[in-house]
Please model this.
Amino acid sequence: MGKFYVTTPIFYVNDKPHIGHAYTVIAADILARWHRLAGDEVFFLTGTDEHGEKVEKAAADAGKTPKAFTDEVVDKFKTAWKALNISYDKFVRTTDEDHINRIKNFVSKLTDNGDIYKGEYEGWYCVPDETFLTETELVDGKCRVCGREVKKVKEENYFFRLSKYQDALLKLYSDNPGFLSPKYRADEIINIVKGGLRDLSISRATVKWGIPFPGDPQQTIYVWLDALPNYITALGWPEAASFNTFWPADVHIMGKEIFRFHTIYWPAFLLSAGLKPPNKVFAHGWFTVNGQKMSKSLHNVVDPLSLVNKYGADPVRFALIREMEFGRDGDFSEEFLVEKLNGELSADLGNLLSRTLAIAEKFSGEIKGEPEPGGLVDIKEISSHIDKLEIHEALEKIWRYVRSINKYVNDKKPWSVKGPELGNILYNVLESIRISAILLSPFIPETCEKIFGQLGVEAGGLKDAVFKEFKGKVTRGPNLFVKVQ
Ligand code: MSP
Model:
């Protein structure tokens, strides 16, 4: 038992959440829930990144003030996360008074440490990515990350001495091999840092929607310097007890396109402020929808809320995690979701419960017996996948277990057996279902609640995921899932 601090990126509020944002949040939720099951003290942080040119522009396009606009979009994020059963402990907004004050404090700290100076910035800026780019970083005159138009910027800015942290960063990566995760994403970052770092512009003279720069209110703090420290401002850095308890973060989860910001800028800022870097930064891949990149112009942006309304939260959570290896790119389609809902969720899990309970309800003998070794599950192996952030692999192993319970039922044919022999089979199946529901509860929490309810047992933690005496009082309820065509 220990502590576990997991974060998602804070999302831009230029538009409502889509399925890509939901993917990151669901993955982090699974980790948070798993660690709570294991008895760890957990802090799960998510939130919104509300300042900067991109949001300023979206508000103007909508004919609203940035504040009114962001309030509305934030509500949409919160509604979607609630519908998906996201169990965050805190939702941070960069427009929170508390965050703003702590950011000013943080920037003053970097200034006090001699890492900030004023200079002239001349170069390119990608508004959608809120990124400064040099001439050599453009591809065909466009942003090399998102491929969109960039604009020329020439202004007086404050700079952070990022170049000073080259060696410290390289040492951080080599001393902590797990810091850059997954491993296959490490080389790119190491090469960027080895190639030499330029100092970073950390203020904007032309952007009004932001936190005023301490001591120079004509400038606003660059949105990434406002955003990245959310991971400590939300804990109440510097004085709050939760900061001491939870920092350093165990893992920051994000999509691969913002890995660089989290593995270069963020630890450099922290080192400058005299704080520890996070233990791990993990980038997952991107998914396309039906083979295409999601974009407004293609009208293929998937709204997680409408999927939940149509299919329920658990099928959405399940399909997203089942679809792709956590870390790699993948593709999402509604057909895949329906296939998982009808196949694995409904046929493997739903039917297993309902056919077992139908027999158990009619059985008047004692439900007891000996655990049959074939039905044992390797919880250590599953936990180790979670520790390595192979959440898709953990789910795969749990699912193999669910299938093995089905196989046991088919082999033992409880419908043709009576008396103590049936009591023993029911004991094995009901306990296995109870154990699998504990293991599945981080992935499909609502369904597992229903399973515990129908079994008539307490939910329990990971330590309860072992064969015990069956103490439930079964009552068959409605099917866990309704198949769709
Ligand atoms: N505000 C910054 C992050 C600041 S963190 C200190 C930002 N916000 S964002 O709204 O653009 O969200 C980006 C995140 O959304 C990605 O890192 C990823 O987690 C998720 N995804 C967005 N589209 C995605 C896909 N198509 N596929 C998977 N995840 C993607 O960047």
